[in-house]
Amino acid sequence: RILLNFGAHGRELITSEVALRLASMLCGEANSRYVDGDAERSRERISELLRQVEIKMVPAQVPSARRLAEVGAGSCKQRRLNGRGVDVNRNWDVAWSEGDEAEGSAQYRGPRPFSEPETRALARLANDWHPDVFADVRSGDRYMAMPYAYKAAGPSNRVERQAMLAGLRAVTSMWQRAHPRLL
Description:
The protein is mainly α. The chain is 38% helix and 8% strand. A three-stranded parallel beta sheet has the order 2-1-3, with helices on one face. It starts with a strand and ends in a 5-residue tail after the last helix.
């Protein structure tokens, strides 16, 4: 089970577009070059994967901010926040105290963790569905946050640490093969 969240900040337009493109590819409605650049083999492989994996996507976590960005309304800060002026990315109980406590800030965490309907809805989906993988897809930076990325220390369990490193190495290797000029 994989839960993918896109569009925590409405101004990150590309993330929601990626969600829609991915959904189209998973449904066989858009060409994919997942397997050796071959669209038909890619469709077959994606079908095989979907027999083993369930995927849920939230294409725009904050639709009101996305709408502002789409029509070119509001400030850059307003396109980052929800309608109540809260950065839902900072409204979780994980590292909530590290968010900005000042109302009006572009990184205002809200009055308490899970104070915002968008955060509560996503948390409820995760709690009810119990995904094995959760990915918050963002734009604006070339980096990948792993579990424990919100604090300096990673897992103390050697097996978990090795599994995280192996996953990161696999993704890095895949990225290097696909985009050698960008590294």
